[in-house]
From TrEMBL, chains A, B:
Keywords: Kinase, Transferase. Gene3D superfamilies: P-loop containing nucleotide triphosphate hydrolases (3.40.50.300). The lineage of its organism: Bacteria, Bacillati, Actinomycetota, Actinomycetes, Mycobacteriales. This is PPK2 family polyphosphate--nucleotide phosphotransferase. One of its GO terms (molecular function) is polyphosphate kinase activity. Residues 51-268 form the Polyphosphate kinase-2-related domain. It comes from Mycolicibacterium diernhoferi. One of its GO terms (biological process) is polyphosphate metabolic process. InterPro entries: P-loop_NTPase, Polyphosphate_phosphotransfera, PPK2-rel_1, PPK2-related.
């Protein structure tokens, strides 16, 4: 398969995810139907074959991004995954990101900050994990925790977290200016579906490790998280780094959608295989004699 | 599929790779047949289905390793890949490591040291890249470059690189003592096959980026590299961190072989799903009411 930049969105998509799922001013978190499959006309049974095909497309583009960095191209891509527990961030990492070459992936999960991290500015640990040229960075949670869990739990004063929205926008503007394409995915699962998923973790000994009693504490703060997500979308969805709203009750849909968002991000870089930075014929002769 | 620790080596293997491919005192690099497929009775046509099946097994075990780290298990696995250019290190990363969840993988490629790296001890950058608990670290080249390219090019005095074998052994002993299982893979491609693979990179514009004129300079030093590899095997294949010799002219074979080495390493940890570190029934009740 020879990756190129022409439109190749599969016909099962009636609407292009990167425009259709993009947050628009006025969108309300309370109105999101987590069960929906916006823009997709197919069904679950279409997903496996489509995932396989588009994973290959993604992997081809990722290799091209990586290849270009060897010739001095400084661009990179950053996937930011935010969502409540069980929204399926791990599944995106495994099934979407996992399809590409580990060589070009920089994955980072942001948990509770360590004492060292807390002793720095909240963007310190974020900066350290930014993708190198040619790489796809994947943030499993991110700097947005600093306006989500931090806001909900009052971990810092309101004027402190309140100032972060502008700060994050400025930070992301710098990243974009430096050549990073940012894909911010807000993943929404319904309260009922979350209950089902947490119950499954409690029913299966091979899932216990994914369960954390604190998840229920967070669940009980759902309305406050909705507010915090709403503010995050309203204040940090910018032209240069927009949020995408992905309904996640159907895992197969959310994975297909994020996969298309990533493909589109890579296609927007208008990548080509880099030209040789050596004399091909001369090298052929050297090799023949070596 | 429920991973367990019983022997499940596919029948197409007549000999267990982790004993059959292990370096033995007296093994000579000059005698290695890079074309061979030691221990494997199948053929190339068997490879795709077998890779898919064993990749799944590998991914299952990797998840279990990761899961255990959440309950305080500090163990990790480190795959060290060494080989001449075109031996197929990248293919191992893509097709073997790539089958597992990026969440649990720490990939690091060691190229020419940066000025900062050079200002430190040669193990400084190695230490920084060691896998965290529950992770599989992948070294694409490694500290062994410090007794390979460094030795061949006389980048430091002989007494300096000469002291490194013992130092590396002590370093690896510490890692093993701290809970890291080290899988060291020496990949061997023949001179003729290397020529073919370099020629392909020069024939295909989508492969130019993998070509480096310096590869031919290294190729011309083949006999000196053979000496350096021989010394590396003789001096650093220890009971606690043995080298495995993998013939790599047939990519499908080398990938299957390394995959089995990794599966075996994970099986040797005798992993089980970690027990719940919370009261399952109490949490079920809390969830029902949440």
């Amino acid at each position: 398969m020879s990756p190129d930049n022409t439109s190749d969105l599969p016909e099962l998509w009636s609407h292009v995810p990167h425009t259709h799922l993009r947050y628009r001013a006025g969108d309300k978190v309370a109105d999101i139907d987590a069960e929906a499959t916006p823009g997709f006309t197919g069904s679950k049974s279409d997903a496996p074959a489509l995932m396989a095909e588009r994973n290959e497309r993604f992997a081809g583009l990722q290799e091209m991004l990586y290849a270009n960095s060897r010739s001095g191209d400084h661009r990179s891509v950053l996937l930011v995954l935010q969502g409540m527990d069980t929204a399926g961030k791990g599944g995106i990492v495994k099934h979407v990101v996992g399809a590409s070459n580990p060589q070009g992936i920089q994955y980072k999960s942001f948990g509770k900050p360590t004492p060292e991290e807390l002793s720095h500015h909240y963007l310190w640990r974020i900066n350290k994990a930014l993708p190198a040229a040619g790489h796809i960075g994947v943030f499993d949670r991110s700097h947005y925790e600093d306006v989500l869990i931090v806001r909900v739990h009052n971990l810092v004063a309101p004027n402190v977290w309140g100032a972060r929205y502008d700060e994050i926008n400025a930070f992301e503007q710098d990243l974009v200016d430096a050549g990073t394409t940012i894909v911010k995915v807000a993943m929404f699962v319904s309260l009922a579906e979350q209950k089902k998923r947490l119950a499954e973790r409690l029913d299966r000994p091979d899932k216990y490790w994914k369960y954390n009693p604190a998840d229920i504490d967070e669940r009980l703060k759902w309305p406050r998280y909705q507010e915090a997500y709403q503010a995050m979308l309203d204040k940090t969805s910018t032209a240069y780094a927009p949020w995408y709203i992905v309904p996640c009750n159907r895992k197969w849909y959310s994975r297909l959608a994020v996969l298309e968002l990533m493909i589109e991000a890579l296609k927007s870089l208008d990548l080509k295989w880099p030209p040789a930075n050596f004399d091909v014929d001369a090298e052929k002769k050297r090799l023949a004699q070596a």
